Amino acid sequence: MADGHEIKGQCLCGAVTYSAQVESLHVDACHCSMCRRWTGGPLHCLESKDGKLSITGEDHVTFYGSSEWGERGFCNICGSTLFWRTKDRAYAAIAAGSLIDEAGLVFTKQIFVDEKPAYYSFANATEMLTGPEFLALMKGDKPQ
Q1: Residues sharing a CB contact under 8 Å with residue 44, sequence separation 6 or more, in sequence order
Q2: What average pLDDT does the segment 7-33 reach?
Q3: Can you give the residue ranges of every domain in the chain?
Q4: How far apart are CA 69 and CA 58, in angstroms?
């Protein structure tokens, strides 16, 4: 694809597979309290915009409405974290740990750094956004 990359992934048990179009292979880490409760640590994810996420085995995906405008998808058989998406499906954050091929991934951004606990840090030099800074980017469904 000329304007991005196709990524593919699956849950631990294989009941759910997906493909998505992403503009880049940049990985973000979300430190918000909801992502940390959901995954047991920060969520490492890739951004997919404009509804370019295709799911096979969707009957095995449970979506939990974690906020007024977002929902979290996980396999209802094995419990694997798969993606977070806006309820209008215009934007998705794909869990990097669920990818089949991790070649070419680059860790570039951390969000909700104001909610990050003090007990861990990443050595990578990344862009750092607070929760309010990231939410400002989300307005208009155009996260950067």
Answers
A1: 27, 28, 29, 95, 96, 97, 107
A2: 97
A3: 5-138
A4: 20
Average pLDDT over residues 108-128: 97
State the pLDDT at residue 122.
97
- Residue 60 in 3-state DSSP? helix
Q: Are 72 and 3 in contact (CB under 8 A)?
A: no
**Residue spans of beta strands (DSSP E) within 13-88:** 17-22, 26-30, 43-49, 53-56, 61-64, 70-75, 81-86
10 or 1, which is more confident?
10
Helix (H) or strand (E) segment spanning residue 136: helix 131-138
Query: What is the model's pLDDT at position 49?
Result: 87
SS3 per residue for 83-115: EEEECCCCEEEEEHHHECCCCCCEEEEEECHHH
| Rg from Cα positions in the chain | 14
Please give the structure tokens belonging to residue 114.
């104001």
CATH class of 5-138: mainly beta
Q: Which two tokens stand for residue 69?
A: 């405008």
